[in-house]
Amino acid sequence: MKNVLIFLSGAVFGVIGSMLYVKKYLIPALREDLEQEAEEKAQAGPGVCYIPETEDEPEKEETYPGDPVVTEKKNPSTRVAAVNVDYSKYSRETEEISSVPAAEPETTVTENTEPYLIDAGSFDEYSNYRAHNFTMYADGIIIDDETEEILDADPELVFGKTALEELKTSADRVVYIRDDSKKQDYSLERSDYPFNGPAEPYRSADPDDWRD
Q: 18: part of which helix (H) or strand (E)?
């Protein structure tokens, strides 16, 4: 019984000693560490990313051309490393891109919307254009030489006013016209004889008439 009491007394004293040790030494040490950590965070300040230092060497990441240059600055008072990013390379690349001249807009060639005169060498030169030959008689009748039909449309709308005026004084008695809107080439020949009339030049009573 005496041995049991001695054992229990020793256990009680051991527990009391452990509690006194924890209260006197461990709790103040933990409080000091927490206060020091809070002080380090306060000194770091807002807006700066700090990474605690470690004894192990960090693995180096692979870098590629065009990546920002990242450097670390150690702050001895706080025992942390500040990360700074170099954005100057991005600004230089932006200036180089902005200095490249812009491509000039493509120019498009618009076709004429009205008939116009062409020379004899340009007549029927396009494979995707149709060529028609017409004869204009002294009495104003115009015949399609291919179909021998009378043109029932307004000659000025088909050939253009300029072509009709040019035909009056043409020494070759023929003019050549192109209409891009219809993809047509025309040759218009002048005849001094009336259509189905006497075989002699037509004489107009109007002295201002273009016919001889």
A: helix 2-21
